[in-house]
Specification:
mainly alpha, five-stranded mixed β-sheet, 5% strand, elongated, Smr_dom
Length: 714
């Protein structure tokens, strides 16, 4: 008998994982686990293993090492006689195990054997028949006659081969129906599953659901794959309620969803904004032994991120830690994009830095998401610092990333930084400037009013072969128009049209604004010629409103037609420019008519705001001419209200904005000048920048004074 030999190994497990986002977690105490090691030798009698308590007492007396404790084991089990080593030194049968791959879950190599097809004459005939079916039409009238030539006998394997081969989905459906009508084989679940997958590829959810009901009616069982196909197709077709319905039905039958199905239905619930259902489903799945993967956590992170739920994101990371799933690049990219939509740059920056600390290398998608977040938050310096880190670390950069940085520089007015970026692109081997890169630079130079650099860049763009686009041309024409460079404007417009640019409503609006800036000069006709080529109806309307004989009803009808045919985002700019043109030609009455029509058709929804304490005229979205017209209209209305002795608020406010943009500063200056011209009692507010205020007493006094002056003059 072998004598059992035992010892106690004390193993200490300490939690060294760090906590993310400063989440407070309970302190974990050291866990002591004791394992008994029993060995046997053929030369000794049996001995009872010592109890843990007795062994602990020994350890209290002397703190021996593990090797010392195992020394008796070695002496009893390892022979010192040379003749006894033959068995130990005999070479066992070698079995190599790849340490980098997980142990296979399939216990037997005989399980789930792949269906084999013999290369017989029948197999050749079957392949030829499947090829013939794919060449014929998809309708029943074309396909059914061909099915009569199917090689016999019709076996299960042959049916599956044809179902998997047929394309498109119409043929798969016709073939399945033909098999059912022929009664050649019992209808199995796998026949329906293969057909459903083909239908899913064609987004035919209604037909898939019809097949599912047929299976239920005829007693063919729906398995895990059946439900998974139905649910994924419903999601693919944006039929989220259907996806939820079939998932709940699956759950009631006792079938366990796989990882993909769980991730799919979680994404459906997240899309529907059902946070509580997502959490409930997640916890229900975990209770049944389901182990979520990184895709699942990406769905959860996206949902919580877009909702701005930071506790939810912390929850995602703690669940990830508990199931042993490490956040990968896909998870971080999803969370960063969600942070961008939520508008939380600080949290996104912390998330990005944590990703770097974990040793995960960002890709182009990661960096673009972070740059967009910084640009939206106007964290231009952070974005440029990140760009410097990209170069130092050799992180990947592509067109989208470079162009995102250039657009951020354009929004922030960082000319030198943009020029450095653009220069780097020219020197890059794989990211040469494209059409969008040139457009961003044209926008930068145009916003700065740098005509010389803008025109030089345009010439370079034409020579480089980069495709012109309407956005870049619009930026350049706007720059040239503000600089009164009409000849250059005409040349740029003609070149762009020759190279295939089709003027859109924004370009027409830009040309219309240049017409308003020309102030009836001799160069106005040059711009009108370009506008006539782009939008002849708009030029015809300008001529209509310039004719004082044109009635208001005619103007109203034509104005409605012009605005109805224009894109929504350009309707108010169109109206602003038309009012400016009328004021430049001293057509003040027509300007007031256009302002009335613009208000009537909802182009100025926030022009007037009233509370019991304050009435406000907000002209921040108006051009200079339109703002002055609105001021005149407002003062005329207030004069009538005062004369009728109606109730008035304590304070009157006119908002022009701060004029932070270079070309927006003129509104504030012109508005102040017009206030002085009208001699109205509005003064610049010391508390609110870009605001002019007047009290009720001042306004009433001004109206009464003007009435007295008018009576004296008569």
């Amino acid at each position: 008998m072998a004598a059992p030999l035992s010892t106690v190994v004390d193993v200490y497990f300490t939690d060294t994982k760090r906590t993310r986002f400063g989440v407070t977690t309970p302190c974990r105490q050291k866990t002591i686990r004791k394992f008994f090691i029993h060995c046997a030798t053929s030369n000794s009698t049996s001995e009872a293993p010592p109890t843990p308590s007795s062994d602990n007492n020994k350890n209290k007396k002397k703190n021996t090492s593990l090797s010392d404790q195992l020394a008796p084991l070695a002496n009893k089990t390892l022979s010192t006689v040379a003749g006894d080593q033959s068995y130990a030194l005999s070479k066992p049968k070698s079995t190599w195990v790849n340490p980098t791959k997980a142990k296979r879950t399939v216990l037997s190599s005989e399980r789930q054997k792949r269906a084999t097809y013999s290369y017989s004459s029948q197999s050749t005939d079957l392949k030829r028949f499947a090829h013939k079916l794919n060449e014929c039409g998809s309708s029943e009238d074309e396909l059914l006659p061909c099915l009569e030539d199917i090689p016999r006998p019709v076996t299960r394997e042959n049916v599956l081969l044809i179902l998997n081969t047929l394309k498109p989905w119409q043929k798969t459906r016709v073939f399945l129906n033909w098999i059912k009508t022929q009664n050649l084989l019992p209808m199995e679940t796998i026949f329906y599953n293969v057909t459903m997958k083909s239908l899913r590829f064609g987004k035919q959810f209604a037909l898939i659901e019809e097949l599912a009901h047929q299976m239920i009616d005829t007693g063919v069982p729906l398995d895990n794959i059946t439900y998974s196909t139905i649910i994924s197709c419903a999601k693919k077709c944006n039929l989220f309620d259907k996806a939820v319905h079939w998932f709940e039905r699956m759950y009631k039958t006792g079938l366990m969803p796989d990882e993909v199905t769980y991730a799919t239905i979680l994404d459906v619930y997240a899309t529907l904004g059902k946070v509580e259902e997502v959490i409930s489903l997640y916890e229900r799945g975990r209770a049944t032994g389901w182990k979520p993967d990184s895709i699942t956590f990406s769905v959860l992170g996206k949902m919580f991120g877009e909702a701005g739920d930071y506790d939810g994101i912390r929850y995602v990371f703690q669940e990830m830690e508990s199931v042993g799933v490490k956040p990968n690049l896909v998870v971080y990219n999803t969370l960063l994009e969600a942070m961008g939509k939520a508008g939380k740059p600080g949290f996104a920056r912390g998330l990005f830095e944590e990703m770097i600390e974990w040793g995960i290398v960002p890709n182009e998608k990661t960096l673009t998401a972070v740059i967009k977040i910084y640009g939206k938050a106007r964290w231009s310096r952070d974005a440029l610092e990140l760009w410097q880190r990209m170069k130092e670390n050799g992180w990947p950069m592509d067109f989208i990333l470079y162009n995102t940085l250039l657009n951020m520089c354009a929004d922030a007015g960082l000319v030198k930084e943009a020029e450095t970026l653009f220069r780097d692109m020219k020197q890059s081997a794989h990211c040469k400037p494209d059409s969008y890169s040139y457009t961003a630079m044209l926008n930068i130079y145009g916003s700065q009013g740098d005509v010389e650099k803008a025109m030089k860049l345009f010439e370079e763009m034409c020579m480089s072969g980069a495709e012109l686009n309407v956005m870049g041309i619009t930026c350049l024409i706007q720059c040239l128009g503000r600089a009164m460079e009409f000849d250059g404007l005409v040349r740029v417009f003609d070149t762009s049209v020759e190279r295939g640019i089709k003027p859109d409503d924004r370009l027409c609006g830009c040309l219309l604004s240049v017409v308003s800036l020309s102030q009836a000069s001799k160069d106005e006709e040059k711009v009108l010629a370009c506008l006539r080529q782009a939008n002849p109806k708009l030029v015809a309307f300008i001529q209509l409103i310039e004719d004082e004989k044109t009635s208001f009803e005619t103007v109203k009808e034509e104005f409605k037609g012009i605005m109805s045919s224009a894109a929504v985002e350009v309707r108010r700019p169109f109206c602003n420019c038309l009012i400016d043109i009328c004021r430049n030609k001293d057509l003040l009455e027509r300007a007031h008519e256009l302002l009335y029509l613009g208000t009537l058709y909802g182009l100025y929804p926030s022009l007037h705001n009233k509370t019991d304490e304050e009435w406000c005229l907000d002209v921040r979205s108006l051009s200079v001419g339109a703002a002055l017209t609105a001021l005149e209209e407002w003062m005329w209305t207030l004069t009538k209200i005062v004369k009728r002795e109606e109730t008035l608020p304590e304070l009157f406010l006119a908002q022009t904005g701060t004029g932070a943009h270079k070309f927006a500063q003129g509104l504030n200056i012109s508005f102040a000048s017009h206030l002085r011209k009208l001699a109205v009692p509005f003064r610049k507010s010391e508390e609110k920048v870009g605001c002019f205020t007047a009290t009720r007493e001042d306004l009433v006094s001004w109206v009464q004074s003007n009435s007295t002056t008018a009576a004296t003059a008569t």
